[in-house]
Each structure stands twice: as structure tokens, then as C-alpha cells.
Amino acid sequence: MKRKFIAVLLLFALIFVSTSCSALQLKTGKDKVIEKQDSNGTTAQDKSKVEDDKGDLLQTDPEEYSKNIIDKRAIDVLTAIKNYDMERFADAIHPDKGVRFSPYGYVDVENNLVFTAEEVKKLAADSKTYLWGHYDGSGEPITLNFSDYYKQFIYDADFVNAEQVAYNKALGHGNTLNNSFEVYKNSIIVEYHFSGFDSQYEGIDWRSLRLVFEKKDDIWYLVGIIHDQWTI
Length: 232
Description:
The protein has helices spanning about 1-30, 45-60, 60-80, 85-90, 115-125, 145-155, 180-185; strands at about 100, 115, 130-135, 140-145, 165, 185-195, 205-215, 220-230. The chain is of the alpha+beta class.
């Protein structure tokens, strides 16, 4: 009887030790982490990786970083400009700052004309002449209606099919000071550039059109259109 009682005690002790070891093993093992997903199925870990990738790209290739942000927006705006689609063009204009038109690379914040989105919608049919600046070389006033200004100082080349495109980087260089990065801080400037059209001019007939975008409420709006070319 005594032996039987001892045997039962040993059996219970064995079961207790076995259960404790299993529990300890489960507790010390690696837990499986389940990331909470948002409505798009993206986890916090995924978002963190995307942000890290963006940060790495900004440091290693800032131009490519800017391109990834603005390329589609810029092409949409440029296409509207090419098609003279003033409604679509106006929709892209900054709601507070409007859009400034600069006939040459130097942005004259005192004298370059600024129009609101609503004003731009009416420019296509507007026959009124405006003083846009002064012609390089002669110094004569650039007094044109919008349609004629558009032909000379906005879309005077097929910039949708530009030879080169740059993001926050200047391509065209002349004698006029390019102060766009000082005037438009915290912006993305997209430059559409032709290095020249006639070989006899050896590149002095180059043309550039720069579209300047600034961010408001997570939307990039157009705040400047800068036309640039060789100046004396």
C-alpha cells in the first residue's frame, strides 16, 4: 500500500514537471507579431519602410525624388497649356497665391503679372493688353494680350516633347540671372528644355519653360510659369 502511494506521488510529480517545462518553453519562445492593417491592407511596418525608402531617395537622388512627386501633375498642367485649355489649366493654379508669369529667367516679384485661377479662365477671350515686362536687348515694353504673350513667352516650342526635363535643376543658362529657387522656396520647379533648333546658331536659340509648384493641403499647385531663353 505504501509503495503504491509513493508511486502515485511520483506520477503526479512527473506530470507537474512536464507541464511546467512545456509552459516555460511556450513563454520563452518567439511570439508571432501580427501587424494591424489599414483599410488598404498596408501595415505600419510597410508604411515605415516606404517612408525610409523616400528618405533614402531624397538623400541619394533628390531630382528623382522630386520627379516621383510631381511628374504626372506637371505633365497634366503642361498638356493643358499646350491645348490652350484654360479651364483645366486654371484648376491647377494655387488658390491663394495665383500664378505669376515671367517672360525671362529672372523672376521680377515687383513687376511680373500674377493672375488668380478665375482670372486665368477669362484670359483666352480677353483682348486687353497687359505690360508683362520688357524685351531683352531693346528694353521695349512687352505689351501684349494673353494670346500673343502665350505664343511668344509660354508655349513657343513643343515643350510636351522637350529634349530634356529636369526637376529642381536648371538646364538653360544665359546672361539673365535665374533667381527662381530664391523666389520660390519650398517648391518643385520642372524645366522643359530644348538645347537649340538650328545648328548655325550653336545653341544660342535654346528655349526653356519652367513650371513652379508649391504644396497646400497635400496638393501641389502651380504658382509660376517662367519662360527662358538666351539673353543679351
